[in-house]
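Hey, can you fold this one?
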Amino acid sequence: MPNLDLNIAFWDYDRTRPLMDGRVQFEGINSEITVLRPREIFPRMIQNQEFHVAEMSLASYVILKARDQCPFVAIPVMLSKVFRHDCIYIRPDAGITKPADLRGKRVGLPQYSSTAAVFIKGLVQHEYGVAPSEIDWFMGGQDTPALAPWVPLDLPDDIHLQFIPDDKTLEEMLEDSELDALFATYLPQTFLNGSPNIVRLFPNFKEVEQDYYKRTGIFPVMHTIIIKEDVLAENPWVAASLHKGFTEAKDLVVGRLYDTDALALTLPFLIDHIEETWRTFGSNFWSYDVASNRPALEGVAQYVVDQGLAPRVVGVDELFLLDTP
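Sure. Predicted structure:
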């Protein structure tokens, strides 16, 4: 039986590189791999289903599932996990010294429904008591023209969201005092340039994030892998093959973290960083399974409802086709 031809889209991560260079291959699949940034893949997949298999925003997937409008099925491959406390930026003169001070403020974000924004809003509400309805939201491009919403927005009346003009960016508006805070997807250029008008809400974000994980068990999952339903209906074995391949690629990279021959050409402190990570999260910190990621998955399923993005809380067991030990 010939191999199945599949177009598979994901970003260039260390944990996907073995699939890109051929060290790991998907059994029974001729994979045409397309390497794109996530923000390019997501709208192309959601709007046009351009790929057979693709990396996908976890929040967008959960929202579509809750709306019963999802033509995809996910497998528990957590390609991206990122804590987001360090992504909350404020103007020093905006009267914000703690998360509760965000109440009533003007806050910009690139995508109201992105997983990063969903997790930030979720922690602000569930950790610090500020509901999404208590903030004035401004959506637009962070440092370039705005992208259209990845999923259609039909927010309840108590959520106050404005789209910024096309000729403005969120970073410019923060710089010009038109915003009080910014929930950034990536490091703001104004911050990197040393502007005095932008600082982190949590300057000690590493300690805050470690405490958050120890108390909640949440290591925020940003992206997963989805398969088009029609592909899966005709080839149900594909899910296991994909999960096995992604897992082998990730394990190959993780297994080399302590390769001292490889580390000889990198910064010496990397070993200390690896050991600290394992002490905090355990050796299976980048697991591709439902059980160990359940706190994060349950969190995002609740947050999208809290934020007016979904009509119901999707059970974690509804999200993935298969689980592994």
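The chain has two domains: 4-81+220-319, 85-216. Let me know if you want another pass with a different chain boundary.
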